[in-house]
Amino acid sequence: MGFLDNVANSLNRGVNTVSRSGKTAQLSLQMADLMRQRQNLAAQLGASLYEQTRNDPALTAGREALYDGIAEIDAQRAKLEAQIEQIKAEQAAASAAAQTYRCPKCGSTVAAGDLFCSGCGLPIADVIAGQPQPAPAATPAEADDAPVAEYEHVTEPDE
Hints:
Layout: H1 2-53, H2 57-60, H3 64-98, E1 100-102, E2 109-111, H4 124-129, H5 140-145
Antiparallel strand pairs: 1-2
């Protein structure tokens, strides 16, 4: 029986070790998650304190480099945001300029950026106003109520 007792004790020790390792890993994950939450809250606190204290010389004393660094980053970010908005505006203008219309008077193709139709001189506002409007899509109920064409049965004469 001594041999089986030794095997049973070894298995129990192994199970206990694995259990402790699993529990340690689980607790370590929980601790890492709590540290991420703490860092997020600390960043939010720092941002709110920065906004409240940046114009108070008594509170910024000794921390000028930090405040100046944040102000410089904010200025750079504002420049980048302005560049992004400019690019978006250019894209919208390019899309609008690429739009073409068919002149309702002469049938020529007219670019949206043109002032007049090159075929007949119609002002662009009139060209745009003369574009056909798409018909609204019929709802399923309206489609069911649509008149059905009746076909007359025609017989072929015998030859």
